[in-house]
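Q: I'm writing up a methods section and want to include an example of the input and output format. Could you take the sequence below and give the corresponding predicted structure tokens, formatted cleanly so I can copy it straight into the document?
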Amino acid sequence: MIHFAWPWMALALPLPWLLARTLKPLPPQGAAIFLPFAAAVETSAAAGPPPVARWRNVLLALCWLLLVAAAVRPQWLGPPQATPSSGRRVLLAVDVSGSMATRDMADNTSRLRAVQQVAGDFIAGRTGDQVGLILFGTRPYLQTPITSDLNTVRDFLDQAVVGIAGPQTAVGDAIGLAVKRLAPAGTDKVDNTILILLTDGASNAGAMAPLAAAGVAASHGLRIYTIGVGAQADPDDDGPSDGVDEPTMKAIAQTTGGQYFRATDRDALQQVYAQIGRLEPTAGRAQWYRSSDEWYLWPLAMALFLSVPAVLVRRSA
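A: Here is the clean output for your methods example:
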């Protein structure tokens, strides 16, 4: 879209007309000259300026219009683009072990697909924050480092597949990797930084115990919000029991100053992420940038081009 950076410069448009109306003509200098043909000169002046003078006035008027057009500084603004801002750092650790393929969520949706939909909306709402993604199973992997590019983080979450990190669940190693990425060596405390860990099973793999990893996270000031996902098992059912180790998940959250949440369906998972969003509101402010192309050079160049014939017409008059 076109934009004028200095629109108030347009007030100079009637300036030549005002000067011509207000300034008095210069008085004659020296002795008066006797003109025996003064009557003929007066009659010619009353008939108006000659054609050459009229063309010169038109050229000068166009030059002035172009100069004013350049003075208002026309610009072409590009579409608004989000720019990184300093806010909260949020790292999501999502379980992609084999059990996340279980279809016990709403509309026969798998657990991982429900997490991708709900957590994706959560990521999109963290405007001004920096978000990262860890996928963990038997081993944890940093899928997306901490970044302000929320669309990329969401895309990588959507591309996650069950079993990509192994069939088991290493909760302690996932926490350890998060601490390593959020609190590098030599850093005692981290500010405005949280970890949201989501799993549907108990930790049965990895080198670090979950509670030991939680203690390391707490020593660095990292808050962990834990989410147990999956439908509750029916006590009267002979099928497999609920795999979420709730006592451990609660202990991790309590040790680090976070909270534990249970989500048995997609709606409950939405409420969980909404509550975390209220507990940890975005600390950053949305900032936008619009690229601009300066257009004042075009009318300025046209005015310079037209000034040449205006001068030539004056000399030939």
